[in-house]
Amino acid sequence: MELIVDGRRLDGRGFDELRPIKIEAGILNRADGSCYLEMGGNKVVAAVYGPREVHPKHLEDPSKAIIRYRYSMASFSVEERKRPGPDRRSIEISKVSREALEPVIMKELFPRSSIDIFVEVLQADAGSRTACLNAASVALIDAGVPMKGIVTSVAVAKVEGFLVLDPMKDEDYYGEADVPFAFLIRNGKIESITLLQMDGRLTVDELKSALELAKRGAMKIYKLQRDAILKRYVGEEVIE
Ligand code: ADP
Known about the structure:
- The protein has about 240 residues and is α+β, with helices and mostly antiparallel strands.
- The chain has one domain: GHMP Kinase, N-terminal domain (Ribosomal Protein S5, domain 2).
- Helices cover about 25% and strands about 35% of the residues.
- A hairpin with a 2-residue loop joins strand 4 (about 35-40) and strand 5.
- The protein is globular, with a radius of gyration of 18 Å.
- Adenosine-5'-diphosphate (ADP) binds near residues 78, 80, 127, 169 and 172.
């Protein structure tokens, strides 16, 4: 399958272009914080509860809050019906996503509590774990959870020898490598990498270039996350 035609990708994007992103904070009434996010064909909802009492109680930590993260795909989110419930893939994604967010949350402020993050994929189109992390970050801020910064996530793929930002389904499926990243952004600067996974094969130089491409993409997503928070709490008129 030809994925690059005349220097453009199948959906018309340049190599360093993100898919269209839409973010809305505070869409659920019962959750403490929430977010709806679209990243290309991905449509996800994040809900945050807490800090709250831990159930079951034996899981509580006397020195800090515990963080729980559940990534889950609706059965109608992919072409073939997905069997409902957790599977190996979603358990792994939940674990690495929790680890990607933990460094940003000020857990020490809430001993014996839990902060529970649920993310539901309504429609998946590659990069759903990155879309979920971006939504979860906004939902955490919407919940008023004290944070040291914000986590922003995007993938890079290698397709027909080229590195491309934010791959969609065909690029992910037929490409030579897929590398999702998450970054901790603090005071408007990328401070650290909190998630880095890789499927496939890259040279060391390609990995370095992939990191630079992902960083540029993450800064754009970060601005949209910030705008979504501002829109909810300050009103639309302040946003240029
Ligand atoms: P990510 O969504 O984070 O890229 P994967 O690389 O595992 O995670 O999956 C890539 C894409 O493959 C998903 O976004 C989704 O479109 C599709 N996919 C994942 N799991 C399934 C499944 N069980 N059935 C059908 N398609 C799936």
